[in-house]
């Protein structure tokens, strides 16, 4: 609070003190009797500066009123009062004739105001140094609201060098968020504007080309709608978090896929075991029947009859052997990993055709083979796959025509992965279209066992090999017209392979 420090009347050219109040006495420590009739500058020698004396002369001669602010007062002179600074008002005093007879000097103690201002200035200097030295971008803003006190924009008030660098030294002081942030403006206006409206601090995470974490807090007087914001660039940590999240999600997907695969595999193995035991019963029963007859009818059997029983036993044994080999192949494919290498399908198919041509059990056939690509995969498994399909065409050939087998290829891309579609088309006996999926099931048969040999596992193995390589196999056919098998495989086994849609 301001309070008078002095009230004096100065007269004459030497500014003689003719009136002084108790406050002047307490400030100077000089008695009133001693002070009166002394020149002003004898009592206040520290104020004997050309500037202050010139002011007194100007007031005395020109009759103008002057105010002098924050005059420093010697502590020794301010006798025990603690006064350091005063504001002085100098008013001319006029006599009855209108002439100036003296000066009324009124002093106000402004020491606390000066101290407060200096403290604020020191704080501002420290704040400015801290403000400029921060590595984090910092700015202050004024939130603009509508008639319902909802934030609709904000204006930049000040910023530190780090924020200037963030803005690529673009002058944004005085601009608004909508001028600067473009499509990101609505988000930041809403989130940061809430701090001004509620008066509560807040941490906001969001994007402005990069990912930031903003610490926002109200500043200034209540109702000023001013907010300070510290921005921390979290782009790298966000990318790492996203990478870890994607890794965890991918790992979970792989675990889920592996779990589904295990459940499917277990289900297939149970079905496989049931079907195997069921199909094995028949040849075992036949062996048991013929052996019993050989034992019990041995003496009465003719040589021809005995040889017939033995041949039927050998047929059943051969069937069991083929089934056991098929089971071995199936389990190897199901549970073994894949050693991948570059496989030239031209060489692979040529070898299979050559092997089948020299098999006396196969009917001669004409082959038409287009140029085939080189793919990545297991050479042994791919050999089994295509050997089963070609053997299937030879097995189910029509008796009245020359067997013709055409092998073509077509490249395709799906979800950024390159695939090749290998088609094997024949003019065999074919099958009804409704059986196009059934033929791939374990031990499935469309014809009696005594008409066409085999364990009923060839196409099942082919399907598992194609799936193992990240591909698929489909079949289309019409009875007595022929069949087409499409094998779709990725060119590179190292790529993430999700089987393509047929």
Task: Give a nutshell description of this structure.
42% of the residues lie in helices and 27% in strands. It is an alpha+beta fold and 502 residues long.
Task: Chart the SSEs and their pairings.
Layout: E1 3-11, E2 16-20, H1 22-28, H2 32-35, H3 40-43, H4 50-62, E3 66-72, E4 85-94, E5 100-109, H5 111-133, E6 137-145, E7 151-159, H6 161-166, H7 177-180, H8 185-198, E8 202-208, E9 210-219, E10 226-233, H9 235-296, H10 303-335, E11 341-344, H11 345-357, E12 365-369, E13 374-377, H12 379-395, E14 403-414, E15 417-426, H13 458-468, E16 472-478, E17 482-490
Parallel strand pairs: 12-14
Antiparallel strand pairs: 1-2, 1-5, 3-4, 4-5, 6-7, 6-10, 8-9, 9-10, 11-13, 14-15, 15-17, 16-17
Helix pairs in contact: 9-10, 10-13, 11-12, 12-13
Provide tags for this entry.
single chain, 502 residues, alpha+beta, Beta-Lactamase, Helix Hairpins, 5-stranded antiparallel β-sheet, 13 helices, 42% helix, rod-shaped, disordered C terminus
Notes on the protein architecture:
With 502 residues, the chain is α+β, with helices and mostly antiparallel strands. The protein folds into 4 domains: 3-113, PAS domain (Beta-Lactamase, 2-Layer Sandwich); 134-233, 2-Layer Sandwich (Beta-Lactamase); 236-335, Orthogonal Bundle (Helix Hairpins), CATH 1.10.287.130; 337-502, Histidine kinase-like ATPase, C-terminal domain (Heat Shock Protein 90, 2-Layer Sandwich), CATH 3.30.565.10. It has 13 helices and 17 strands. It has helices spanning 22-28, 32-35, 40-43, 50-62, 111-133, 161-166, 177-180, 185-198, 235-296, 303-335, 345-357, 379-395, 458-468; strands spanning 3-11, 16-20, 66-72, 85-94, 100-109, 137-145, 151-159, 202-208, 210-219, 226-233, 341-344, 365-369, 374-377, 403-414, 417-426, 472-478, 482-490. It has a 5-stranded antiparallel beta sheet, with helices on both faces. Strands 7-6-10-9-8 form a 5-stranded antiparallel beta sheet. Strands 12-14-15-17-16 form a 5-stranded mixed beta sheet, with helices on one face. Helix 10 packs parallel to helix 13. The longest helix is centred in the middle third of the chain and has 62 residues, at 235-296. It is rod-shaped, with a radius of gyration of 52 Å. The model is unreliable at 445-455 and 495-500 (pLDDT under 50).
């Amino acid at each position: 609070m301001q309070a008078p420090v002095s009230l004096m009347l100065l007269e004459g050219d030497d500014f003689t003190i003719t009136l002084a109040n108790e406050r002047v006495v307490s400030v100077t420590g000089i008695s009133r009797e001693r002070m009166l009739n002394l020149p002003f500058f004898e009592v206040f020698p520290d104020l004997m500066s050309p500037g202050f004396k010139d002011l007194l002369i100007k007031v005395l001669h020109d009759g103008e009123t002057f105010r002098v602010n924050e005059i420093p007062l010697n502590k020794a002179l301010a006798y025990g009062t603690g006064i350091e600074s005063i504001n002085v008002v100098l008013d001319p005093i006029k006599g009855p004739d209108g002439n100036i007879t003296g000066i009324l000097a009124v002093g106000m103690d402004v020491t606390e105001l000066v101290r407060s201002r200096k403290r604020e200035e020191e704080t501002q200097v420290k704040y400015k140094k801290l403000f400029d030295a921060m590595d984090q971008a910092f700015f202050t803003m004024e939130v603009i609201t509508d008639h319902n006190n909802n934030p609709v924009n904000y204006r930049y008030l000040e910023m530190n060098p780090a924020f200037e660098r963030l803005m690529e030294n673009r002058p944004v002081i005085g601009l608004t968020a909508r001028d600067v942030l473009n499509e990101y403006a609505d988000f930041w206006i809403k989130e940061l504007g809430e701090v001004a409206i509620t008066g509560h601090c807040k941490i906001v995470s969001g994007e402005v080309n990069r990912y930031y974490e903003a610490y926002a807090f109200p500043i200034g007087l209540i109702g000023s709608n001013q907010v300070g914001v510290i921005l921390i660039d979290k782009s790298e940590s966000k990318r790492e978090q996203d990478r870890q999240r994607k890794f965890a999600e991918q790992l979970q997907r792989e675990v889920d896929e592996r779990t589904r695969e295990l459940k499917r595999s277990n289900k297939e193995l149970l079905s496989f075991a049931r079907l195997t035991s069921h199909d094995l019963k028949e040849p075992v029963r036949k062996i048991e029947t013929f052996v019993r007859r050989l034992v019990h009818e041995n003496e009465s059997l003719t040589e021809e009859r005995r040889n017939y029983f033995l041949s039927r036993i050998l047929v059943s044994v051969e069937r069991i052997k083929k089934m056991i080999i098929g089971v071995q192949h199936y389990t190897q494919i199901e549970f073994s990993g894949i050693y991948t290498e570059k496989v030239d399908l031209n060489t692979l198919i040529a070898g299979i055709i050559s092997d089948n041509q020299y098999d006396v059990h196969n009917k001669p056939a004409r082959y038409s083979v287009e140029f085939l690509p080189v793919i990545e995969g297991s050479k042994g498994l791919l050999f089994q796959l295509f050997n089963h399909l070609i053997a299937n065409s030879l097995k189910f050939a029509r008796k009245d025509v020359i067997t013709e087998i055409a092998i073509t290829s077509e490249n395709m891309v799906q979800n950024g992965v390159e695939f090749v579609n290998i088609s094997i088309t024949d003019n065999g006996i074919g099958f009804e279209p409704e059986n196009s999926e059934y033929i791939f099931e374990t031990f499935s048969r469309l014809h009696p066992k005594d008409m066409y040999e085999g364990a009923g596992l060839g196409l099942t193995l082919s399907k598992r090999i194609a799936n193992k390589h990240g591909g698929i196999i489909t079949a289309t056919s019409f009875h007595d017209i022929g069949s087409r098998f499409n094998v779709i495989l990725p060119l590179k086994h190292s790529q993430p392979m999700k089987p393509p849609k047929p």
